[in-house]
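Q: Okay, next protein. This is DNA methylase from Oceanithermus profundus. I've checked the sequence twice, so it should be correct. Can you predict the 3D structure?
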Amino acid sequence: METSISSHPERGPWGNPRWRGNASGYFYKDLFEALGPKTFVDPMVGSGTSVEVAREMGIEAVGLDLHSGFNILRDSILEIVGRPADLVFSHPPYHDMIVYSGEVWGDEPHPDDLSRAGSVEEFADKLHQAVLNQRTATKPGGHYGVLIGDLRRQGRYYSFQAELIARLPTDELAAVLVKVQHNVSSNARNYRLRYPRIMHEYALLWRKQDRSTYQVIGAMAFPQKRRLEGTWRALVRQAMVEHGGEAALADLYRTLEEGAPERVRNNPHWKAKVRQVLQRHGDFRPLARGVWALAA
Ligand SMILES: C[S@@+](CC[C@H](N)C(=O)[O-])C[C@H]1O[C@@H](n2cnc3c(N)ncnc32)[C@H](O)[C@@H]1O
């Protein structure tokens, strides 16, 4: 794992090559060599690839999965394993790209199977909780992470890796790797797409800081607030640009109302917000009463 690209055409002897959505054992080998964990947990172990590699390398490893009675949305990984691990890394389903319960294993659909989440949004929420469960089971200074792919559905592109990065503590993000997907089955429908077929997935790694899962909200709230503030600033600047660099407040309100109705509808104080943006940042200067311009 010397670079941020991971590419292994072979999967090696570990796990089960017939398990749909299995990962190459060489990927895990690189991961363990880079991070050197003494203890490892994979809470969505599938056919067991990661755990087999880990044990071969002398790492104490625990593999859990819904197929054998562990449910990441209801059971605490930490409680089951008994002590926090150096590395808690999972390879979740990519929403319903491959459906597991009742298809790959078992006779019945399982309601908490991540691959059976009712919508992309529900999947993202459940995935978020799963990673928080992993985080709780990680030693401070240790790593938690996922191998996850993006998804194209009905003309839309959903980036679960971007979603996770946005939802987890920014100051814990340690590495993002692009993993090349080999042996992806093609289908004729894909060839007609205007956009490239997705041939990669991501390995995301966070390094846990010494604070509880619930303190994490403190670490996340600030970046989220900054992002929202930045969005307002960008919207007001763009409205000003559309008015040729200077505009009366009333015109800015109108443009924003027409251009961003949802954002405006969600904030009953949005006009005050616009005035605050104009006054607070050095981006704008007052020209006359109620008229503003982009600062030089
Ligand atoms: C992509 S597969 C893992 C493949 C594995 N890396 C391998 O090489 O075989 C994802 C796994 O997540 C499991 N899973 C789905 N929902 C789960 C849940 N709520 N709790 C635990 N495991 C779950 C599925 O049963 C499936 O085995």
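A: Here is a summary of the prediction. The chain has a mean pLDDT of 91. The first helix runs from residue 25 to 35.
Q: Noted. On to the next one.
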